[in-house]
Amino acid sequence: MTEETRAGFVALIGEPNAGKSTLLNRMVGAKVSIVTHKVQTTRARIRGVAMAGQSQIVFVDTPGIFRPRRRLDRAMVKAAWGGAADADVVVLLVEAHRGLTGGVEAIIEALKERGGDQPVALAINKIDKVKSEDLLALTQKLNDAFPFVKTFMISAERGHGVEDLREWLAGEVPIGPWLYPEDQIADLPMRMIAAEITREKLTLRLHEELPYQLTVETEHWTDREDGTTRIDQVIYVARDGHKGIVLGKGGETIKGVSTAARADLCEFLGKTVHLFLQVKVRPNWLEERDRYSEMGLDFKDGD
What we know:
single chain; Rossmann fold
């Protein structure tokens, strides 16, 4: 008799930079969520699909939960809690070396208030950064603060403990047919994934506030007869001064971004990609409804 299939949604929640995107990419085995050293880089609820035996685990990679200041921030935090509410299982990711911060306490309080009958597991990430006795004390403190159904010690970056978490999730998602074709790893349109890859490269190259003042859109996608793909993208910035920063001296920054993004796109698509980037000033893009739709966010959530 064949084993029953299972499928369900798992929400990864936590503070910005807790390692949710790294964990998602490790679970799925491909780069579907952008990973940078900057906080708040995940905007849309990117879903990655991981297979574990007969189980299909669909990850909802939520934006980091933080205290929102702007419309974009508010829409991101609303999307994060929306992702958690829709999921079959919730995993709270906490950084081992930062411990029970005010931000983590606020998330735990919100989890208590929300109620809900989904199991909530704890994953303590970046365990290689602390001593084992500190890790045990933190585990105790977090489990005293909330009744987690299970605790995992992991290093998303190195892969430690990730398999145990995946196997447990495989048994927790409901019995039922798979939600996606077996070979599909993300439900974001390819145009959006391509835009996210370019935005990751921009975030890595640029500093301070600028990455949150720009967005990338894939304008044209042409699959050519010779098997290559041409991708045209526009980088929208909020001010004239930002355009010069993105271009760099003699176009050096934009060239570096384009080269790095193209390499990732070639690897991701398994074919030759020709990438063309333009930078345009759009002063109010942070207040434009269409830009939010492009990012998979609801404009109204920013109110």
